[in-house]
């Protein structure tokens, strides 16, 4: 419905949604277009668990009795793993390598070793085949 004059191709007189949740395309009326804009990519449950464990590990590094070089190696590996876990198409290799580096850096600190074991278990479940 235009205010005078003929409709132009591309006019959208359909339903427009700003914010909220849409579980599928919605359109109504002549020339309506279903357009959905997402601000954030969906995070899988495994990615959310990995990111939470990485955050917890990062927070506990300063309190742990670690050599400064090991602490820095762990921080770098955590940052790399966070980037990969938050990617649109995360790959298992970089996450597994980061977990190995973190495990080596925090070896001997039982509290942190528990987090690393959980991290490795979740990464394994995330990318399990079959």
From TrEMBL:
InterPro entries in the cross-refs: DUF5955
Domain of life: Bacteria
Region (Disordered): 1-23
Name of this protein: Uncharacterized protein
């Amino acid at each position: 419905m235009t205010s005078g004059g003929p409709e132009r191709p591309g006019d959208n007189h359909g339903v427009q949604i700003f914010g909220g949740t849409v579980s599928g395309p919605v359109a109504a009326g002549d020339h309506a277009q279903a357009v959905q804009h997402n601000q954030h990519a969906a995070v899988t449950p495994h990615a959310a668990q990995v990111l939470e464990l990485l955050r917890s590990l990062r927070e506990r590094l300063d309190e742990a009795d670690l050599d400064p070089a090991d602490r820095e190696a762990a921080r770098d590996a955590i940052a790399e793993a966070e980037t990969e876990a938050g990617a649109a198409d995360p790959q298992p290799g970089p996450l597994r390598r980061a977990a190995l580096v973190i495990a080596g850096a925090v070896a001997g600190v039982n509290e942190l070793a528990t987090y690393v074991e959980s991290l490795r278990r979740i990464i394994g479940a995330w990318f399990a085949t079959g």
